[in-house]
Amino acid sequence: MAGGLAATLGMRAFRVRDDDRAAYHAAASVASNFLVTLEDFAEQLAASAGVPREALLPLAEAALRNWGAHGA
After folding, report:
1. What band does 18 get if pLDDT is binned at 50, 70 and 90?
2. Above pLDDT 70, what percent of the chain?
3. Distance between CA 49 and CA 51 in Å, rounded?
4. pLDDT, average across residues 34-50
5. What is the residue-wise DSSP string for the chain?
6. Please, what sign has the CA dihedral across residues 46, 50, 55, 59?
7. How high is the pLDDT of residue 9?
8. What is the CA radius of gyration of the chain?
9. Does pLDDT of 26 surpass 90?
10. Which of 6, 17, 27, 55 could be a cystine partner for 13, CB 3.0 to 4.6 Å?
């Protein structure tokens, strides 16, 4: 059922072994929550230099696209 729901939403389902669920959860948290934390820090640094956060968006988007295409 979960696989069908994922497909309906345009997502790709995959299985995670019970022993690996904590690592998967940590990876997902780093990939989303920690990314936002880093961007907040970048925004604060930019603001201290008088640079608007919007100036960082193209850099962040390009970095994420490059990571998606090529990995770290």
Report:
1. very high
2. 100
3. 6
4. 96
5. -HHHHHHHTT-------GGGHHHHHHHHHIIIIIHHHHHHHHHHHHHHTT--GGGTHHHHHHHHHHHHHH--
6. negative
7. 95
8. 17
9. yes
10. 6
- Single-letter amino acid code for the residue at 66: N
pTM, to two decimals: 0.72
Give the integer Cα–Cα distance in Å for 57 and 28: 22
Amino acid at 32: S
Q: Taking 90 as the threshold, does the pLDDT of residue 1 lie above it?
A: no
| Contact in structure between 13 and 3 (CB atoms under 8 Å) | yes
* Contact criterion met (CB below 8 Å) for 57 and 44: no
- For 6, the token pair is 């994922």
CB neighbour list of residue 9: distance below 8 Å, 6 or more residues apart:
none
